[in-house]
């Protein structure tokens, strides 16, 4: 197999499509479990959407190189939202090696270099310049993926194709608007009146970048802007992009933020006329502007998968998925990466998963590899036996420092279960929904959760004889849950599990 053009068309146990962070993480994790597979990508090198976006070059997610944990440690992952996961210490925290120190928020080129370095240092091989074009099922099982290089046959296809295909609403005249993906260099908007459709992160990113250049800015959508510091998630506008919001509130900054639907866009010579209808009160407003930009989001380029039965959900038509990121309607078709945001989990207290960000879906990818290995290839990942006296301090340490639980609150859980041969074992991290729905042997699942008031606390779900009981531990202002009070609470809740092992 050529090192430069690996994975020629042919038969493989599994095929991963995509070389963004989702595809790279899954490939690395599958290889660690001994699952042979091919990775193909239309891109010329690793990086996925980070080869192009964000447009104004600075990421929303932080990496903080100087904290109290070593950069090669698992605990450091809680402070590093951007590096992919590796088992070898010298391959962890790679983002810290490429950041220039000017910000806790890496630049887009730094993110791209970090992903390229991960692929190089971990040996993740990809057949670049190979575009997936269509898919079909074979009689008797299996799939065929047609590509520009030829056909790939596999038992398990995984599509890590991102959420980077521009989506626009069917607004009359929308063809007069550029999409976020087609935004011009900032200086070309100097002195222009700009109307931005949307009030989520991409809209405020553009508005922040245009502030030194534009004569005026209008941001409009039917719903009010939600700030991430209030929603406590990546769904709202990140605090980094709040300056346009402040300019609107203070007044005089040339920024207008409007709760309104966009009724139509018309061209009159060199001017664009945008007609809006307010959603927070009666009335219509019309604007004459020089440019309209639709920051209306993206969908996933899943091509012909709906013809295979892959159902989609939501405005952006992402594939509906199970707790293990398998198509909910087309068994055997899996997804990786930011598409995982369409598998929302319990949404306890209304909180979404962080699967749309690298800091969330990188853990999903590791779990997905383990699930595929076990379900389709009969390969079980090793588990670690625990002595009864170690269970309580282990779980309290995990809810205090476990990065999986902190990045994916109420979505992923650390599981300790009873094994008929080994006694109590650390079974690793699994989706909480799977633990609650699937049943199984006596076990406990530990999560970190956050309620509507912003309180962060651990919850344990104790399964005994098929019944599950929730044990909620109190918040701690220092976020260290290794207290004597919690030790007593766990000793009481876990006594039957520990005694029965």
Using brief descriptors, characterize the structure shown.
501 residues, alpha/beta, seven-stranded mixed beta sheet, six-stranded mixed beta sheet, 11 helices, 23 strands, 26% strand, globular
Compose a concise summary of this entry.
The chain is 23% helix and 26% strand. It is an alpha/beta fold and 501 residues long.
What would your notes on this structure say?
The chain has helices at 21-32, 95-98, 108-122, 201-210, 228-231, 243-250, 358-377, 388-401, 403-407, 432-438, 484-500; strands at 10-17, 38-40, 132-137, 143-147, 150-159, 165-166, 178-179, 193-197, 216-221, 255-268, 271-278, 284-289, 291-294, 298-299, 312-313, 318-319, 334-335, 384-385, 412-419, 423-431, 443-450, 456-464, 467-472. It is built from eleven helices and 23 strands. The N and C termini lie far apart (49 Å). It has a seven-stranded mixed sheet. Strands 1, 2, 3, 4, 5 and 17 form a six-stranded mixed sheet that branches. The chain has 501 residues and is an alpha/beta fold.
């Amino acid at each position: 197999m050529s090192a430069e053009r690996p994975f020629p068309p042919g038969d493989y146990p599994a095929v991963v499509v995509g070389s963004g962070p989702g595809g790279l993480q899954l490939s690395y994790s599958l290889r660690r479990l001994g699952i042979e597979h091919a990775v193909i990508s239309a891109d010329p090198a690793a990086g996925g959407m980070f080869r192009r976006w964000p447009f104004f070059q600075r990421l929303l997610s932080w990496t903080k190189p100087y904290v109290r944990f070593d950069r090669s440690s698992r605990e450091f992952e809680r402070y590093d939202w951007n590096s992919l996961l590796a088992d070898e210490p010298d391959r962890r925290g790679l983002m810290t090696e490429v950041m220039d120190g000017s910000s806790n928020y890496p630049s887009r080129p730094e993110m791209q270099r970090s992903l390229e370095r991960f692929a190089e240092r971990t040996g993740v091989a990809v057949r670049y310049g190979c575009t997936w074009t269509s898919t079909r099922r074979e009689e008797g099982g299996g799939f065929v993926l047609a590509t520009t290089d030829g056909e790939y046959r596999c038992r398990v296809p995984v599509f890590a194709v991102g959420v980077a295909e521009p989506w626009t609403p069917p607004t009359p005249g929308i063809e007069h608007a550029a999409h976020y993906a087609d935004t011009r260099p900032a200086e070309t908007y100097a002195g222009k009146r700009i109307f931005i459709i949307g009030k989520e992160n991409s809209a405020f990113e553009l508005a922040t970048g245009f502030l030194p250049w534009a004569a005026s800015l209008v941001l409009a959508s039917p719903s009010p802007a939600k700030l991430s510091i209030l929603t406590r998630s990546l769904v709202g506008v990140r605090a980094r992009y709040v300056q346009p919001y402040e300019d609107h509130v203070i007044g005089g900054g040339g920024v207008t933020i409007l709760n309104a639907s966009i009724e139509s866009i018309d061209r009159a010579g060199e001017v664009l006329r945008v007609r809006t209808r307010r959603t927070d009160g009666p009335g219509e407003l019309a604007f004459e502007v020089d440019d309209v930009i639709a920051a209306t989001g993206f969908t996933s380029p899943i091509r012909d998968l709906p013809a295979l039965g892959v159902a989609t959900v939501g405005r952006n038509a992402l594939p509906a998925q199970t707790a293990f990121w398998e198509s909910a309607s087309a068994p055997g078709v899996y997804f990786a990466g930011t598409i995982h945001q369409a598998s929302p989990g319990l949404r306890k207290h209304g909180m979404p998963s962080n699967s749309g960000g690298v800091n969330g879906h990188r853990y999903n990818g590791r779990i997905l590899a383990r699930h595929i290995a076990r379900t389709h290839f009969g390969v079980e990942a090793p588990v670690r036996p625990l002595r009864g006296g170690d269970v309580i301090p282990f779980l309290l340490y995990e809810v205090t420092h476990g990065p999986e639980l902190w990045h994916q609150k109420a979505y992923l859980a650390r599981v300790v279960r009873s094994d008929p041969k080994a006694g109590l074992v650390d079974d690793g991290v699994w989706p909480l929904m799977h633990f609650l729905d699937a049943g199984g042997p006596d076990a406990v699942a530990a999560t970190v959760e956050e309620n509507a008031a912003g309180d962060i606390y651990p919850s344990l779900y104790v399964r005994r004889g098929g019944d599950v009981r929730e044990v909620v531990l109190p918040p701690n202002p220092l976020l260290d849950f290794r207290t004597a009070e919690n030790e007593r609470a766990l000793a009481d809740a876990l006594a039957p599990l520990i005694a029965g092992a």
